[in-house]
Design brief:
The complex is a heterodimer of chains A (136) and B (451).
Chain A: E1 2-4, H1 12-26, E2 37-44, E3 47-50, E4 54-55, E5 58-66, E6 75-77, E7 83-86, E8 95-102, E9 106-111, E10 123-128
Parallel strand pairs in A: 2-5, 4-10
Antiparallel strand pairs in A: 1-8, 2-3, 5-8, 6-7, 6-9, 9-10
Chain B: H1 17-27, H2 33-42, H3 44-53, E1 66-67, E2 70-71, H4 80-91, H5 95-107, H6 115-127, H7 133-141, H8 144-149, H9 163-173, H10 180-189, E3 193-198, E4 201-207, E5 217-219, E6 222-224, H11 228-237, H12 241-253, H13 260-272, H14 277-286, H15 303-313, H16 322-330, H17 352-366, H18 384-394, H19 402-413, H20 424-444
Antiparallel strand pairs in B: 1-2, 3-4, 5-6
Classes of the chains: A mainly beta (136), B mainly alpha (451).
């Protein structure tokens, strides 16, 4: 999980330049991670909104923004209630990216596990649709 | 004047490239040297017609935006909403529409809402940017992002929430001329909107008559069983409304405060047109005050205007997400105004922190393919004026004052002063450095912050 708050600091320019120089020198591709699908998620008191509620099986990045005033978290459960991924605490106004790979089609539950937040409405669904059939 | 000393291409009406540059910056995101030449030649009336009414052809021109070689995903990737709108500002053939969308985003400020709702609201603002204000106000009042932001959603007759009614009068339409009682009564009239959820997903806003206070209200001295549309009709018919809105529009385009007679004239145009925005904007963009002191611009470019203008001028599209954190550091994150009052414009953009971010912007610009000066590419045989001309050409011919022009020429002239005439490599290195420095100064210098 990656926790971020706000945007990159001013010093990021130097960092970017160094990273660029290193990757260029090594002839490496800019990103070693496999392609993943971004899923925006907004949390607030007391709801969770999933901006891409249906995805295909594969690697996902849940880009979570806490738009509320309280601390929240986000947990991904499969249909049996097994925890597939979780963020840590996400402060008010903060962001977190959760990386998770969901290969099995079906409906997954997203919820905030802090206090009674889920019972008060902080829960949502993410549907993994069956994979596309290859074109003949 | 542009770094190339000005050629005053003037039509018989006295319409020059400087007029075009002023108009294109205030009504949009700047003019390239070619645009300034073309429209100076076509004259004032044709230029104003193109700016206000638009021309034929596609609304967006140029390559679609990408980040890391992939298309934008505005709803799901952090910052891509900002890049999506920035791209429209850069590629739009109707810059005034994007500029007015920015005006409404600030005037009818909404923040902290889910990205898809903010993107939908942005389209509403764009559709109504130059149309009927009453129509736009009706659409924004029903807009889910606005309703959730100002707690109009779920305000019911048992406990009317006053937030929207208060901002409607104070910030959106009147500014003064109403009472606390008017606000409370309007809040009653605005009840009944409710947010809907199904299967744990937000489904939008709907009106539920049973949650609406259908009783008699008294607003601005008039009584009736007012509902949402009646309240909006009352505020736009209030005598304070037209002067309030046209003054706000004026201040978006012109730095000096409007005279009373100007406000009266604009308010009259606004009312006679049936509360339409375009005739008022056309009148403001035609006003001599907009073209005052063409050699001494005095409006501070908002961060997004600086960035979009820099990209347009240098012929670049949106192909990096660096613009997101740069805009944030400069103090303007689109879709996230600091409060319902919007951003503080003008000199407030130029804090020491945000000025540093404007320097960072120049650094990033110089790293883009169109502006990058490769190592060892300097040509020491170029005269100082040619060096400056080359830098100006690459950066889109930005305006520089006579004083800044002299300083840049002095820098260029003295760049080899301490080197021996046979030090070829040293002179080439210095020429490379000079070209980078000139481009940086043209983008980050004091003149570049103003339009």
């Amino acid at each position: 999980m990656t926790l971020t708050r706000g945007f990159r600091p001013a010093g990021a320019l130097v960092g970017s330049a160094i990273v660029l120089a290193l990757t260029s020198a090594a002839g490496a591709s800019p990103s070693a991670r496999p392609a993943s699908t971004a899923v925006g998620v907004g949390e607030r008191e007391f709801s969770i909104n999933v901006y891409r509620p249906v995805v295909r099986p594969g690697a996902l990045r849940l880009n979570v923004t806490n738009r509320g005033e309280d601390v929240h978290d986000l947990v991904v459960l499969d249909r049996r209630g097994r925890r597939m991924a979780a963020s840590g605490e996400i402060g008010a106004g903060a962001r977190a990216t959760i990386r998770v790979t969901l290969l099995r089609a079906g409906t997954y539950r997203l919820l905030c596990t802090r206090n009674d937040h889920a019972a008060r409405g902080m829960r949502a669904r993410l549907r993994v649709a069956p994979p596309r059939r290859p074109a003949r | 004047m542009a770094a190339r000393r000005p050629r005053r291409r003037t039509t018989r009406s006295g319409w020059t490239e400087a007029h075009v540059r002023r108009l294109f910056w205030r009504a949009g995101f700047g003019a390239t040297p070619a645009e300034a030449r073309r429209w100076a030649g076509r004259g004032r009336a044709a230029t104003l017609r193109w700016v206000v009414d638009g021309g034929p052809g596609p609304q967006l021109r140029g390559a679609a935006p990408t980040v890391n070689g992939k298309p934008l995903d505005p709803a799901n990737e952090y910052g891509h909403d900002v890049l999506w709108w920035l791209d429209r500002m850069v590629r739009s053939q109707r810059p005034l529409v994007e500029k007015m969308t920015l005006f409404w985003h600030d005037h009818l400020a909404t923040a902290d809402q889910d990205t898809p709702l903010m993107l939908a609201q942005n389209q509403t603002l764009r559709r109504g940017a130059l149309g009927s204000f009453r129509g736009l106000l009706g659409a924004v009042t029903r807009d889910p992002a606005m309703q959730l932001f100002l707690s109009l959603a779920d305000s019911d007759k048992a406990a009317p929430n006053e937030n929207y009614a208060r901002e409607l009068m104070e910030l959106f339409t009147l500014g003064s001329g109403y009472t606390e009682r008017d606000v409370r009564q309007a809040a009653r009239a605005l009840t009944g909107w409710q947010s809907r959820y199904a299967n744990d997903h937000f489904q939008g806003i709907r009106f539920r008559p049973e949650a609406h206070d259908a009783g008699i209200k008294r607003i601005f001295g008039r009584s009736g069983r007012f509902g949402t549309d009646a309240v909006l009709d009352l505020v736009v018919a209030h005598p304070k409304h037209a002067p309030f809105l046209v003054s706000k529009l004026w201040s978006f385009f012109v730095s000096e405060p409007p005279r009373r007679a100007t406000v009266r004239g604009l308010a009259s145009i606004y009312r006679r047109s049936g509360l339409r925005i375009k005739p008022v904007v056309r009148a403001i963009l035609s006003h001599p005050s907009l073209y005052r002191a063409l050699d001494a611009p005095d409006m501070v470019k908002a961060p997004v205007v600086l960035v979009a203008g820099g990209l347009r001028a240098s012929g670049q599209g949106v192909h990096t997400d660096d613009w997101v954190w740069l805009l944030s550091n400069m103090g303007q994150t689109l879709f996230s105004p600091p409060s319902v009052a919007g951003w503080e414009w003008g000199p407030a953009w130029m804090s020491s922190n945000s000025m540093r971010a404007r320097f960072d912007f120049a650094n990033v610009m110089l790293n883009q393919p169109q502006l990058k000066v490769p190592d060892d590419s300097g040509n020491p045989r170029l005269a100082a004026a040619d060096q400056l001309r080359r830098a100006s050409g690459a950066t889109g011919g930005p305006w520089v004052s006579g004083r800044a022009h002299a300083a840049l020429m002095s820098l260029a002239s003295g760049t080899y002063a301490d080197l021996k005439t046979d030090d070829d490599q040293g002179r080439r290195n210095r020429a490379t450095l000079l070209q980078r420095s000139l481009r940086h100064l043209l983008i980050s210098g004091p003149d570049a912050q103003l339009h």
